[in-house]
Design brief:
It comes from Candidatus Pantoea soli. This protein has 336 residues and is α/β, with parallel strands linked by helices. Helices cover 37% and strands 24% of the residues. Bound molecules: 1,4-dihydronicotinamide adenine dinucleotide (NAI) and (2R,3S,4s,5R,6S)-2,3,4,5,6-pentahydroxycyclohexanone. 1,4-dihydronicotinamide adenine dinucleotide binds at residues 8-14, 34-37, 40, 58, 73-76, 78, 96-97, 124, 126, 172, 272.
């Protein structure tokens, strides 16, 4: 059986996901496209030789009879309305992060999904599908390094455009750590604080960069995450867990070591598309398989909500300079 997919938003990641649905994944086919910039869709139809209808209205794509599942890869503020419409139409929906730009927006989706009686939503948090994070989790669960006490993490991008604002360090960038660290530790967060080190001269005038986010979990585990989005040298994701009996680090992506001109060196990737290329393939194949089998298992609307609750507190902490509490309601049995 093949899943017929409609894609809303054909920019950077939309294009990547269309490529993988058409050329990499099994049992998936892109049959419909929408973007406020129609020429993006036309270009993609040409580039990937797609047999896909271009819709001028996203809501028409969502309700189109030939579309069985929706991928939402448009800008963050548009996600909530499209996901709600997909649930309303009784269709499965894969939504890129963030599920919605506020916790309340995510809760609206959680409530609509529960009312529909069936899990239909997967959020595009791909790191739980990354082989490195999976290996790190299996070390933690083996008990080899004892109970985790502290985590030291970094999320570095070489550069960002002028449209990137200080709160996007949380809502666009840290949101991945907020999800994956909760998954890794199986704990929620209880507080957040944000510290601003000396600013890099490479950042635009309105952007505070870098930032350090300090999180505390329910068991008292302390996490520091450096967000540095104009680090220049590469796209670099770090995670080190300090346990009672040892330390476990996220493995570096595979890279050939060279010895040349009196130097020993290994390359560092420069963009997220390549760093997580396998994880994106696996997460989307899981979505396709789960929709076809009727059993959704990926990052859920509740996970999207949990990350957004923590993100809201981090944004409040950016503004107040204080330690802000994070109050997570109990997870409904629907999401067990
Ligand atoms: P982008 O700006 O390259 O593409 C977004 C596309 O959505 C554009 O073509 C734009 O015209 C279209 N669009 C905007 N509003 C629309 C609307 N109302 N209806 C239809 N189309 C609309 O942005 P990018 O980088 O592709 O990001 C898209 C989303 O994916 C964001 O939420 C971003 O956070 C997420 N993302 C996730 C990544 C991950 O690692 N999981 C990596 C990159 C992006
Ligand atoms: C981007 O939107 C992503 O989601 C990438 O995975 C992340 O590393 C980057 O910081 C974001 O801007």
């Amino acid at each position: 059986m093949t899943l017929n997919i409609g894609v809303i938003g054909t920019g950077a990641i939309g294009r990547e996901h269309i490529r993988r649905c058409s050329q990499v994944l099994q049992n998936a086919r892109v049959v419909a496209l929408n973007d406020i910039n129609r020429s993006n869709c036309e270009q993609i139809v040409r580039d990937f030789d797609l047999q896909a209808e271009i819709y001028d209205n996203a809501h028409d794509l969502i309700t189109a009879p030939e579309v069985q599942a929706i991928l939402v890869t448009s800008w963050g503020p548009t996600h909530e309305a499209f996901v709600l419409a997909a649930i309303q139409a009784g269709k499965a929906v894969f939504c890129e992060k963030p599920l919605a730009v506020t916790a309340q927006g995510c809760m609206n989706i959680v409530e609509a999904e529960m009312a529909s009686g069936k899990k239909r939503v997967q959020v595009g948090f791909m790191r739980p599908y990354d082989s490195g994070y999976l290996a790190l989790k299996s070390v933690l669960e083996s008990g080899e390094i004892g109970e985790p006490l502290m985590l030291h993490c970094a999320h570095r991008n070489p550069e960002v455009g002028d449209a990137y604002t200080t709160d996007m360090a949380i809502t666009d960038t840290l949101i991945h750590e907020l999800d994956v660290l909760r998954w890794l530790l199986k704990e929620d967060y209880v507080s957040a604080q944000v510290i601003y080190p000396r600013k890099t001269r490479k950042a635009s005038s309105h952007l505070k960069d870098p930032q350090i986010v300090l999180l505390e979990t329910t068991k008292g585990t302390r996490i520091d995450v450096e967000i540095f989005v104009n680090c220049e040298y590469g796209y670099d994701i770090q995670c080190e867990v300090v346990g009672e009996a040892g330390i476990a680090r996220l493995p570096e992506p595979m890279s050939v070591q060279t010895r040349r001109a009196a130097r020993l060196s290994t390359g560092i990737l420069t963009d997220w598309k390549k760093r997580f290329i396998d994880a994106y393939d696996v997460e989307l194949q899981a979505f396709v398989n789960n929709v076809l089998s009727g059993n959704m298992t990926g990052p859920s609307a509740w996970d999207g909500y949990a990350a957004a609750v923590a993100a809201d507190a981090c944004v409040a902490a950016q503004r107040s300079g204080n330690i802000e509490p994070i109050a997570m309601p109990a997870r409904p049995a629907f999401y067990d």
